[in-house]
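Possible race condition, two jobs.
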Amino acid sequence: ALLVMPYIWFATMKFQRDSNKAYLAVRERVGANLSALQESIAAVRVIQAYAREDEQIRRFEESNRALFRSHLHSVKVSTWYFGLVEFAGIAATGAIIGIGGWLVHRDSVSIGTVTAFILLLANLFDPVQQGGVAPRVATAAILLAEQTAEHPALRDVSITVPDGERLALVGPTGAGKSTLAKLMARLYDPSSVDGATGSVSFGGVDLRQSSMSDLRRRIVVVPQEGFCFGGTIRENIRIARPTASDVEVEQALASIGALERFREFPEGLDTEVRERGSRLSAGERQLVALARAALVDPAVLVLDEATSNLDPGTEAVVEHALESLMTGRTVIVVAHRLSTVRRADRIAVVDHGALAELGTHDELVALGGRYAALASAWEASQPH
């Protein structure tokens, strides 16, 4: 009965080492997989802005396959060990029956003694075998559904933006200005209302007729808050154009006056920004977002007030970078502050899903309508 014990002991020691590594790897892969999923959901606007859907799907599939391989390895570790325990139990029982039968035949022991050994051996192996139930891997399907509104966010809006113009979209919260900007960048497509379908064209071509890769080379969206993925500063900028060389990445940063700032980091552009860019300040994350846009060198920039959430010290740096980026391009900006609006060539006032007013700052103030009231409220809120 004791002959199998050395094998069980050595196997248990090996299993303990291997299983600790295997299950630790599984936990790490689960964490990485969930992190990749959460990152993709949180950065969905950045992913859409640079047509990175296929790349993010590839990364998630890669992470998922790594998790599957880790699970498979952990199952293999369990299988050989508990298979060995099962075999050892059967072999020991078989040996006791065989040798015990021979000893009973010689009248050396009684049948009761052999039976007792068999039962005691079962009591020894059963707990080990019960612990051999392989861990069950529960798979959860996460369904993400976006509830669409019953009523249209915009209706009867018609606007033409000449090449090289800066257009500011203003209006109260929920008026539809962000929706209009996203339609212009084709983050949304116009839907049908009362049988009529809207359209958004660039250079006379309906955006729906253009491939997403071509579109994202011409129209770039810079969100209100710069989002960084896990990786280095260089890798985060290269998201905009994966084929860009190191020199082109540095030129993009230099064009917005931010290269030296990032070169001062201990590891320069190869500095890890950590999850969601936690190693960078809000201003530095926004500079990364602007560098992405500069790397693409688009004809049209769509901005969601890229400096509204920054501290005054960082704001000046980002403002300078933003001004460099906007030079020579058509710009549509969702504006929340009077200083931004006044730099625009024209202002579109969106209210209750309609284009209420359109003109220059002076024209709209003289008109005495919705924009004049907004401008007056902005000025009154400024510290004197």
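Job #2 (started ~2 s after job #1):
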Amino acid sequence: MASVSQQRREYVAELARKNREFYGTTDGRGILRSLELIFAYRWVYIFELIQNALDASAQSIAIQVSDDGDTLILQHDGTREFDEPDVEALSKVFRSTKSASSVGFMGIGFKSVFMRFQEARISGWGWTFRYEVERVKGAEYGDVQTDLLGAVVPIWDPGVPRPDPGFTTRFELSTRMDQNADLESDLARLLPDTDRTPLAILAVAGLE
């Protein structure tokens, strides 16, 4: 009998195969391109990740920016176990395990990270996988475009760092799309110096 880790590896591989087959079509790529119209603000991913933490019943989160300013790590202590439907929701567009009353219920919310980063590495509850999107030159005009197929094709990766002690889930986002837009400015959208209302709202929600 295959181990739990092997079963999860196989599940991720099969999910990637099916998504590559569907989203690799003309219609599928059209769906992915629509993401660029949905997320007008590149910093919205911060709010989406925090919403995910709240959905997982987290009481504490930690956000860290690397010294070179190219990587953002968000960890939380959510108690709701991360399972196969969650991996599927992260890996699809217009599909999610959330109810219709939840923010990002169509599975779109997480994709906002790919408006800002080329790579997302996720770990927790025994899962370790990543997504990678490529920047390619357009065939007709030679302009640089983002190939979002990688945003729905998970890759099992046992080398992804595990959550730190005290946390259950870790998101590591790296390789900024726009090197001129710093991550500190993204965090300032969440906690602006002139308005502590978002912090108060998170406190009411039970988040530290």
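The mean pLDDT is 84.
Logs attached separately.
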